[in-house]
Amino acid sequence: MASRHSHSKSKAPELRIVLVGKTGVGKTSTIHTLLGNPSLTDTSASSDTTQCQSVRGECNGQKLVLIDTPGIFNTKKSKEEVVREVVKCMICAAPGPHVFLYVMQPDTFTSEDYRAVEIIQRIFGKGFKDNTVVLFTCGDEIDGKIPPKILNTALIKGFNGRYHCFDNTETSPDQVNELLDKINELVHNKNKGRFYSNEMFKQAQEVLAQELKKEAAMTPDTATDEVLNRVLSILLSLTVGGPMEKLVNAAVKIVTEKAGECITQ
Ligand SMILES: Nc1nc2c(ncn2[C@@H]2O[C@H](COP(=O)(O)OP(=O)(O)OP(=O)(O)O)[C@@H](O)[C@H]2O)c(=O)[nH]1
Ligand SMILES: [Mg+2]
User: Fold this and answer.
1) How far is the CA of 217 from the centre of ligand 2 (A)?
2) Is the pTM of this model over 0.85?
3) Residues lining ligand 1, CB < 6 A?
4) Could you tell me if 4 and 196 are in contact, meaning their C-beta atoms sit under 8 angstroms apart?
5) 68 alpha carbon – ligand 2 mean position (Å)
6) Among residues 209, 179, 200, which one has the least CA distance to residue 99?
7) pLDDT (tens digit, 9 = 90+) per residue, 143-186?
8) Domains present along the chain, CATH in parentheses
């Protein structure tokens, strides 16, 4: 069951953002841009993320936890690897993300995106779409204007028309500030400052808290890889018969059946 949790303050001191999308659409590049790292100099080099990982940073006084996801739909991955990455994502985003960014490139928008969104929704739950902003990368290639034929699709309407156009070759902070404004608008006005959670995120949070308690003065910010790996092992051992089982099995099934259709390269 999905639910939302309230923060006591009107503005979340920390925004947990999960970036999802098809392979090679610009998820990792977007994280670099959000953290103010140098803009893309070589747009032919792909980072080809293989593991789910979180990066922490700060923007305009707001802490950001940016969770990068790999090509979850990559058929080259074994079922075990897929499950591992899904569970790792739950740990990185625990107790739940404030927002998902569905990253896509305007010129690679196809019917595959509908399947990709369906798969991601099966993994993260029904509330996924209500907590998502679509982020178009490669704004530089279309002069920052998303064609209306894309904006008018059922896919974009399914996200209530929430989108932002990004140019990862651009250094100006304006596009980052505008995106954060849209995210804060969704989180604080529409969702009353609450973050998204479900049984999986809750279980990840419980195990994480339990393991952090064993370490003196360790917080999610300072958790070592050793502790995170321990949490991952515990959660993986709980997938049979635990809250994760049904969803993880669903994820594996869909990934196995439809993976090939979601790969763009
Ligand atoms: N021109 C242009 N190229 C971009 C932009 N964003 C990303 N790219 C390029 O798109 C390619 C893929 O970018 P990545 O950030 O690695 O994409 P990803 O979604 O993390 O890819 P995987 O980790 O493999 O799933 C790279 O060659 C980037 O340089 C953009 O805004 N403009
Ligand atoms: Mg990547």
Assistant:
1) 32
2) yes
3) 23-29, 40, 43-49, 70-71, 137-138, 140-141, 166-169
4) yes
5) 7
6) 179
7) 999 999 999 999 999 999 999 999 999 878 899 999 999 999 99
8) 11-39+46-262 (3.40.50.300)
